[in-house]
Design goal:
The protein is of the alpha+beta class. It is 16% helix and 41% strand. It has one domain: 2-Layer Sandwich (60s Ribosomal Protein L30, Chain: A), CATH 3.30.1330.20. The longest helix is centred in the N-terminal third of the chain and has 13 residues.
Length: 114
């Protein structure tokens, strides 16, 4: 069977104070997945839990994101989370705090049943 990409969504998450990279990533995922309602799985006799969900997160310091915590926020499917350099960060004058923006691209795929 072939895995077929069915939908791509984008999201943005912000931590205004605290520079919590995982929180910003979770918010980006939340933003992306709440733009759609996925009902296509039943077309091939599958359920939402059969979906393959790939999450790509962009933040300035990828090592600061706890990918397993981000994956746990997804309500359905088999998730993989990849974190790469991206997003934005603006620090305050002494560098002790700032605003962090994480970007997410989520692709949802499913076996085509063939």
């Amino acid at each position: 069977m072939a895995l077929v990409r069915c939908i791509t969504e984008m999201g943005m998450g912000v931590d205004v104070h605290g520079l919590d990279y995982t929180l910003a990533a979770k918010r980006a995922v939340f933003d992306a997945i709440h733009h759609s309602s996925l009902g296509f799985a039943r077309l091939v006799g599958a359920t939402a839990d059969d979906m393959t969900v790939h999450v790509l997160i962009g933040v300035p310091h990828p090592e600061r994101v706890k990918a397993d915590e981000v994956a746990a926020t997804l309500p359905h499917g088999h998730a993989t989370v990849q974190v790469v350099v991206g997003g934005l960060q603006s620090l305050n004058a002494d560098g002790s705090d700032g605003t962090l923006i994480a970007n997410a691209i989520i692709t949802v795929s499913i076996e085509d049943g063939k």
